[in-house]
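Researcher: Can you fold this with guanosine-5'-diphosphate in place?
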Amino acid sequence: ALTIGIVGLPNVGKSTLFNALTRQTILAANYPFATIEPNVGVVNLPDERLGRLAEIFSSERILPATVSFVDIAGIVKGASEGEGLGNQFLANIREAHAIAQVVRVFEDDNVIHVDGKVDPTSDMGTINTELILADMQTLENAIPKLEKQVKGKKAEQSTLDAYLEAQKVLEDGRTIFSAKASLDMDELKQLSLLTAKPFIYVFNADEGVLGSEEKQAELAASVAPAQAVFLDAKFESELVDMSEEEAAEMLEMNGQEESGLDQLARVGFETLGLQTYLTAGPKEARAWTINQGDTAPEAAGVIHTDFQKGFIKAEIVSFDDLISAGTMAEAKAAGKVRMEGKEYVMKDGDVVEFRFAV
Ligand code: GDP
């Protein structure tokens, strides 16, 4: 499964956030066969549509999609000036498919800041510098080798050009991800550069920021094209221990429509390039995880490889059409249920039944 690595300076609230994420993981008891490592938090992707489907199909249970977060401890300022980032840290981060950087914007005199003051821009710079330096090292090793290969006609000049462009971006102190629009990302793929991974900035905030759309917009703009999520890690860790009703009440009092964890799950899922389709029956209403752009047979393969191999067609109704019709039979009668073939590219909200031969 694709994972999101959580990084950040000490004392910014990583553990607090991660504890909240792992306590939500208990809900993943739905997945008894998944072994969950202690540093992995698996959270449900909130999806109100599943409840509606369960009503229509009288489903016994609901199985949402999930998002996995990995707690990657160990980044400290100046790490790259000394012996460099720990190898274990680098290996862990390299394995993650996206990076969520927790950034402290909350004020609390009782919580010591490593640099003595709350300064999100400087903190982001610190972490990004460490990651950028690691990537520069990777390129410094790769470029001379590639130059030789290009001379020997064993590699393409275009690859070398892409590497050199990437090096320039890093030397400017920018992440590869932030410059992805102007870089040949395909050529860079094989390097597994840390800063090429999609970034999410999780601003651990207090009332001052959570209550100000202006401040949020400013911070979000400063990290674009990376996504920004604003939450209060301490509040989130309290929310997960409340009953659903209590939690909903607390959120309403705060003027929030959804919890920060839900928001993080949603943004994380999207950042990983994932999407869901839905199935429903008397047993379960379920969201299945696929890549954005997957075709119908690829989507069928997520349920079972036989479904993909023996794929004949997919019977699909959009969730909205199904809800307007009221039942599957009504949707069929209204001509809203489509037969799609092998070339069909799945859309978000497709409610599907696959036809296959074994
Ligand atoms: P880590 O070192 O990044 O893992 O940070 P911790 O999660 O251990 O948090 C460091 C300290 O900050 C702890 O005392 C937390 O209780 C506190 N803390 C974490 N999040 C918040 C927050 O949103 N608001 C406030 N006021 N304190 C927080």
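Model: Folded with guanosine-5'-diphosphate in place. The pocket of guanosine-5'-diphosphate is lined by residues 8, 10-16, 106, 108, 111, 204, 206, 232-234 (CB under 6 Å).
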